[in-house]
Amino acid sequence: MIEERDRLRALVGAGIALSSARSLDELLQRLVETAAALTGARYAALGVIDREGQALERFITTGIDGAVRTAIGDPPHGRGILGVLIRDAETLRLHDISDDPRSVGFPPNHPPMRAFLGVPVMLRDVAYGNLYLTEKAGGADFDEEDEEMVGLLAAQAAVAIENARLYETATRWSSQLEALNEIGTALASEIKLPRVLALITEHLRKLIDARLVAIALPRPDGTLVIEAADGDSAAEMLGRQLERAGSKSGRVLERARAERVDDLRADPEVDYEVARPLAATTGLYVPLVARHRVIGVVVAHDKVGDDPRFSDDDLRLAEQFAIRAAVAVDQSARVARDALRRVVEAQELERRRLARELHDQTGQELTSVILGLKAVEEAQDPAGHAEALEQVRAQVVETLHDVRRLAVELRPKALDDFGLVAAIERLVQTFGEQTGIKVDLVAQLADERLASDVETALYRMVQEALTNIVKHAQAASVSIVIGRSAAAVSAVVEDDGRGFDTAARREGMGLDGMQERLALLDGRLKIESRPGAGTTLVGEVPLR
Prior knowledge:
Layout: H1 2-20, H2 24-39, E1 41-49, E2 56-62, H3 66-72, H4 80-88, E3 92-94, E4 116-123, E5 126-136, H5 144-189, H6 193-208, E6 210-218, E7 224-231, H7 234-237, E8 241-242, H8 248-255, E9 259-261, H9 272-278, E10 283-290, E11 293-303, H10 312-378, H11 382-410, H12 413-417, H13 420-435, E12 438-443, H14 452-473, E13 477-484, E14 488-495, H15 511-519, E15 524-529, E16 535-542
Helix pairs in contact: 1-2, 1-5, 2-5, 5-6, 5-10, 6-10, 10-11, 13-14, 14-15
């Protein structure tokens, strides 16, 4: 009775451990030790079968100390008697292991083992592993009572393994969803392609436990270039060129089909000039496909751990990330094409305007000069000759002013020579002289110069705003404030004109062009206006 009570107490303790153990390995170790104690076995082990059901992913033992374990070497892989239990998932009791024809013997330095009990770890007809016990005390064989006790412990082990795997799967799915959501947000808000690709490579590498993940995009000259990379040697890989015809990435690009390579050395398509410096042994290659066109390749090398090979789940996850990367690349290309189209359209509009001014104004003024010269030729007396010559001189001066004004509108020399504030001061002076509108300018940049593209963007914004005021606002006064903070520089243009409804703003006001120009520098344009209350434009560009 005392022995039976001790056994029940041990079983209850093992059950409590299911809810209190801090890790799966800790719990399984407790179950193995309990099984050995209940049956009087000198040695006990629990082998956990991998998800494919082909080999052991864990092998937990008791009775063998560290020195012996080191002398034996690698743990068993699931051959011989252990392989029989994995394949058949049935209880097996043997008087002597070596007598069974399916036994393959023991490795050197392994302690002798004879009597054997193997019990499958199963739950709902799914085999998770096996509990093994050998060398029962006194040289006896294991009996039905031992089998029953170990069967109860095996059932507890099955519950623990299933719960651990369910938790692992849920955690992995949660991480995948979080990563995909973050990438989706970046696709909707981020305009810089390198940042999106960097985010994709970073998340994918973490989720599939790869040593390196990279994205290669084709160039017009036919080569592939690594545009994003994360992991070991990522810095060295960025910008590296791959031959399209002489690399695995190039072949995958042509075939438009994902491939998993378990041994790079055995694949003749692998570019060893790239793989050798990385010491890569395995790979995933997934094409980026957008609108039935292959526009790049995702490459992953070497899963971290004892087995560097990637799984089918890794491949499927990489394909999901490749879809996002393809969207980012295609979207960036379309935005670039659209921006180029808008730039060309803006240039054509500007050319037409300048052509009209040259034809209608400057052309007429030059015609007046020609007529004035004719009047000089036909003058009959010195006084008439001097008067006609003075008129020609005045006409030439006016024409020269107009030509200079056109040159300033194209590209003010002061912007290049003296900076943003000086160029806007000149613009405001000219604007006031030509329109009679009062302009109040406050510049808080001192003499500090900004980056050329920042100065140009803010100058063009102020210039276009003043043009809109003349054309549409009917304003009496304008206020311009140029300032900066620790992180950004801004230009504020405010008028007291008639304003407009921002929800139904009219074409021809150049507001989209202002927004696009600032957005190219990660800036933004804020528009505040309503009918009868004037308009305020705030352009802001971050400092770099």
